[in-house]
Amino acid sequence: MIEKYSEIIGEQELDSIFKIAEKLKGVSVLHVNSTPSGGGVAEILSRLVPLMRELGIQTDWKVIRGDMEFFTVTKSFHNSLQNGYGDLPKGAFEIYNKWQEINGNEIDLDYDVIFIHDPQPAGLIKFKKKGKWIWRCHIDISNPYEPVWRFLKQYIDQYDSIIISSPVFGRDDLSKPQYIVPPSIDPLSIKNRHIPEITVRRILYRYDVDPDRPIITQVSRFDRAKDPLGVIKAYKLVKKHADVQLVYVGSPASDDPEGEIVYKETVAAAGDDKDIKLLMLPPNSDLEINAFQRGATVVMQKSIKEGFGLTVSEALWKEKPVIGGNTGGIPLQVINNVTGYLVNTPEEAAHYTLYLLRNEKVRRELGRNGREHVKKNFLITRELRDYLMIASLALGGSSVGTSGDPISSNPEWVPR
Amino acid sequence: MQKEIKELLDKPARTPFRFKAAYYPPKYAGIKAYTVDELIEGIKRVDGLSIFYHIFHPLFSSHVVPEDMHNDFALWIRDELHNLELAQLISDVEGKEPRTVEDVRADLIKILNENKVSGRATKPFYFISCTPVVYDTNKEAKTLGELIDTIATITVRSIAYHFIFKRVMGYTAKNDFSLWIEENYGLKELSNALSSIDPQTYTDEEKLREDLLRKIEEVIFK
């Protein structure tokens, strides 16, 4: 399977991954997160874990369990970390700790390297017996609600290293290394690989979307951070000038109890406009998402808060220009006037959407640039290599490959 | 003449050239700058690998630097402080041999101090450092001819490691190719020709590869 990537990234890039993986032969690796499906983290893990195994690294993926009360707490943590203010349920910290205890006692954590993804399972570090623990933070923690950050920091300080998605999320109050690893997409997955035009059209028809009229598409959860109401507003502004359709493709996630409330708010904002399609697709609707992104004239990701916003890379990979919110990891993907446009308001989003709808040549050029940008920066092979390197560094080696010796063991290589 | 060149290219080296390559996983250095003064302070405080990352990494990394701005500092000054003149000065800071990151650091501070601009950026400059991860490509050159062939085909990360990283970080006085050529063949002119290339002013790694090969061609086949 992994060999197939060489057609996309080239033999030399793939070869470097094999070389770096050699250092981790015999090492056991565990990934822990809070949901088996829905959202970017589960999606990355579903691809990354098999690839790590294929490289000969013993890799497992475990999902913590919790009840509605726990996930309401972790959702409030998530929101308060990203938004800078908090609205925590009563007894939030106790509920969080209770489920860390339950999971800590149930999950086998006897591994050499453990990647804990996001705040939900961060407290499992209390149960560390051996190995190197790495906290992989997928969200924006640069301006958190202080009480929640202080609470989580007592755990995060115990990790050996931290991974953030962008330097923008870097914190000055952490003493451990904060590696910068943007997330990635898998170009061979059903969601991202090439599909024939007939498949695109069939799926658009199936959801009553007209493939022959312009389409604005946003693919994201029904979450206030993704600004679905702002998307509706931008669409309505564009609609005054162009015969356009809006497709908002969301999916439920088991760790997001707020989703249904936001969905209902969005339905109310859409009103009775037949050209607005608000879809709540099941988590494994990858082919549909692929088709909606490929069928789009312009893709929007108008988030007001974002971890990284992988749907941007998905769209760019499909040569679609993206109107992206100027937040989180989106500016790493949307480069103004190169791969799309960064916006702060629905009015700006409407302006650039209209510009792109009117200019096919610009759309094509930005689309081409976008695919190249993703190829260089945001494919899963790069993220796989980053994880391997960080695991290797955590275990004390800073050189890898058949020559063996870590750089740090050779005085010649001690950086100045 | 042709026979002499052939003999030179096929003459076995005393020590084969072993090609390694490296990645440089970035890590947040814990320093941000909103103004030129803060940028100067940051440049003073960060480790040499951070200067290496911001000045040389754009060449062979995949982060986005427009081709007319050769390093991260220049890009930030242009886009966030909106001062094109200072950005151009910073963009063209010299990185040629025998200069190391410490020389570059001193130059950056001097240029920024001499050309201070006011203003505060909305988006700060985030200082990033890195930890080199080196791996053996399992490729080696036993002759000068094989060195040329391998430079022409190997991952550009290997070229960057041998030609830039080790030298600018101060581990070697010259780039590895020049050192090997001098030590094994005594070809000073060729060695110096390679040393004269300033990698700091490249934003396209394939262009650097082409220019290295062109220099070799110019000297050997002249």
Summarize the structure in words.
- The complex is a heterodimer of chains A (about 425) and B (about 220).
- With about 425 residues, chain A is of the alpha/beta class.
- Chain A folds into two domains: about 1-185 and about 380-410, 3-Layer(aba) Sandwich (Rossmann fold); about 195-375, Glycogen Phosphorylase B (Rossmann fold).
- Chain A has 15 helices and twelve strands.
- In chain B, α4 packs antiparallel against α5, α9 runs antiparallel to α10 (about 190-195) and α10 (about 190-195) packs antiparallel against α11.
- Chain B is α+β, with helices and mostly antiparallel strands and about 220 residues long.
- Chain B folds into two domains: about 1-20 and about 140-220, no CATH class; about 25-130, no CATH class.
- Chain B is built from eleven helices and four strands; from the N terminus they run αββαααααββααααα.
- In chain B, the strands form two sheets. A two-stranded antiparallel ribbon of chain B has the order 1-4.
- The chains are: A alpha/beta (about 425), B alpha+beta (about 220).
- Chains A and B meet through α2, β6, α14 and α15 of A and β1, β2 and β4 of B.
The largest sheet of chain B has its strands arranged as: 1-4
* CATH-level-4 superfamily name of the largest domain in chain A: Glycogen Phosphorylase B
Oligomerization state of this entry?
heterodimer
Question: Structural class, judged by helices and strands of chain B?
Answer: alpha+beta
Number of domains of chain A: 2
Number of structural units classed as domains of chain B: 2
| Helix amount of chain A | 40-55%
Total helix count of chain A?
A: 15
What's the CATH C level of the largest domain in chain A? Alpha Beta
> Which chain pair shows the most residues in contact?
A-B, 42 and 35 residues
CATH topology assignment of the largest domain in chain A: Rossmann fold
| Envelope shape of chain B | elongated
Strand line-up of the largest beta sheet of chain A: 2-1-3-4-5-6
Number of strands of chain A: 12
Total helical elements of chain B? 11
Query: Helical residue percent of chain B?
Result: 40-55%
CATH second-level architecture of the largest domain in chain A: 3-Layer(aba) Sandwich
Order of helices and strands of chain A: HHEHEHHEEHEEHEHEHEHEHEHEHHH
- Share of residues in strands of chain A: 5-15%
For the largest beta-sheet of chain A, the strand count, sense and barrel status come to:
6 strands, parallel
